[in-house]
Specification:
Elements (H helix, E strand, L loop, with lengths): L2 E9 L3 H10 L5 E4 L14 E3 H7 L7 E12 L4 E15 L1 H14 L3 E3 L4 E5 L2 E4 L3 E9 L6 H5 L8 E14 L5 E6 L9 E6 L2 E8 L4 H14 L3 E15 L8 E2 L2 E3 L15 H17 L6 H8 L1 H20 L1 H12 L1 E5 L4 H23 L1
Parallel strand pairs: 1-2, 1-9, 2-6, 4-11, 5-17, 9-16
Antiparallel strand pairs: 3-5, 4-5, 7-8, 8-9, 10-13, 10-14, 11-12, 12-13, 15-16
The structure holds flavin-adenine dinucleotide.
Amino acid sequence: MDMSKAEVCIIGAGFSGLYLASRISSQFKVKVLDLKSEIGKPQHCAGIVSSRVVNALGNIVSEHIEGKFRKLVVLDIDRGSEVLHIKLSEPIFRIDREGIERSLAEISIAQETSINLRSRAVKINGNTVISTKDRICADLIVVAEGAVQKLTRSLGLGYTQDRVLGLQQFLRVQHLNLDENSVYVLVSDTFDKDCFGWLVPLRPHVLIGVMTRQHNGKEMLRHVEKLCGKLGIISVSSRGNIFGGTILRGPPLRRVSREYTLVIGDASGFVKPISGGGLYWIVRQVDILSNSVRITSDLSEVPKIYSMGIQRYYFKLKIDRYVHLLLKSIGYSKIVKVIGALLRQFPIAEYDEHSMNLLRIHKFVIKSSQLKFSQRS
Ligand SMILES: Cc1cc2nc3c(=O)[nH]c(=O)nc-3n(C[C@H](O)[C@H](O)[C@H](O)COP(=O)(O)OP(=O)(O)OC[C@H]3O[C@@H](n4cnc5c(N)ncnc54)[C@H](O)[C@@H]3O)c2cc1C
């Protein structure tokens, strides 16, 4: 196996690896390697992102937007009732992850980045990446290996303990009794305490998904589909393949770098603990990283600058993680039902800011009860 050279070697051609490559390829000689044989496959993600993510992706995203939504509706599928309507301050989108990853790869390749597929990195030795096909010596190594965190652990940077299984399926529907401007968050007493489901109307399909801590993901998915059928929300004419994977719930890694190497994306545990969404944090991390490489021409400085840059986000995510644990101890389903009984509508949620929303809801409830009290007296 010959030794090749790169300024930056990225391990993982998922969203984080490719987004980073597309941002720095004009500046550096970049090599990306991935164990899979095709970009964008296998798909695992629901692809629901905020306007902030769409704006950050810029021009490439427009042809990959499949849905635009202004509201979240929490639906109790045991009772068939809409518990809470959450109006979003900005729309959210369903993006086609596979298409976006292909576009990011094309941009990077056009800037002379090489993407080596079917190449599994097995070891990082100082500034050298050893894979099943390549041996690459680089000034900077970026680990973007996703939730597996194998290399991340081997570097002594840790592991994100809290993980659930997320499974989903496209259903072709004959009949759809949903508001097509809304993403539906499903709650049920049969779900694990911190798990939920989702229904995304994408006519003529809906994307149905569930999160579970058990090994019963497929039965759970079928059960949820049946309940939705019984409630008259959907009537299914055919089903696509079931797909999905591991969803991380935190905590974020305390250390995300060491000499020559840094970690981004799911590999770093930077995800929203309440929902498990990771794409927003990837966009933020890549922003910090591309600014770091602009600040210094010495790539050996970058891991340190990047680590310092994401410190404040680490603390923010720790707070979100504690909030998640608190909600989990009571049960997501119970919490939203209580909030729903008090409010029914919540008008100003920010999709990416879960703890902030809860704080706002708290203030909102206090204000409206003070108002009711003063009207009565
Ligand atoms: C069911 C489900 C639904 C989700 N829905 C949403 C959502 O709606 N919104 C949202 O924001 N997030 C969502 N997420 C989370 C989101 O998918 C992740 O945060 C995101 O995919 C992480 O991107 P990544 O590039 O870090 O990792 P990945 O996309 O997992 O990419 C990692 C890449 O590294 C490669 N790799 C791994 N090990 C090696 C190795 N040793 N050598 C070479 N290559 C390697 C893999 O083949 C893979 O291509 C969802 C996740 C799941 C499972």
